[in-house]
Amino acid sequence: MGKKLIQVSVNGKSEERAVEPRTLLIHFLREELNLTGAHIGCETSHCGACTVDIDGRSVKSCTHLAVQCEGSEVLTVEGLADKGVLHAVQQGFYQEHGLQCGFCTPGMLMRAYRFLQENPDPTEAEIRMGMSGNLCRCTGYQNIVKAVQHAARLLKEQATATA
Ligand code: FES
Ligand code: FES
Hints:
By secondary structure, the protein is α+β, with helices and mostly antiparallel strands. The protein folds into 2 domains: 76 residues, Ubiquitin-like (UB roll), CATH 3.10.20; 75 residues, [2Fe-2S]-binding domain (DNA polymerase, domain 1). It has 5 helices and 5 strands; from the N terminus they run ββαβββαααα. The protein has a 5-stranded mixed beta sheet with strand order 2-1-5-3-4, covered by helices on one side. A hairpin with a 2-residue loop joins strand 1 and strand 2. The mean pLDDT is 97. One FE2/S2 (inorganic) cluster binds next to loops.
């Protein structure tokens, strides 16, 4: 089957590319757009290392086709910071040391970004449940929970400051 032209907004930039219908979003991002922040872990929708945000939903880009993104807005970890200022979730992971090897971190950040919009004031149990689609082999999750709690506090402060 021939290539298909798709138009997709990635981190606010419009991209138009011809892709094979079978091209996975993770390969499109990493190989076509050179956005290597999203990682390839399991390629079976289990680990969450490849998590990105599409039209306001967390999506595992290893099991999503690039052609399914036609007309969509995709946000990757590269688009989280705003003009060099780290997003609250990035600050949370930095401050609470929510990582060790860092392999899971881009997916964790993207899931935390969406999760805190779904639930801005989560309990610890809700954080653990909300982040449960993202696996980490290093941290034991304690500091990841603290990082998300830290980010939730920052987001609340930011919302109060701009209200
Ligand atoms: Fe996509 Fe593991 S690489 S979920
Ligand atoms: Fe190593 Fe999470 S920090 S897998």
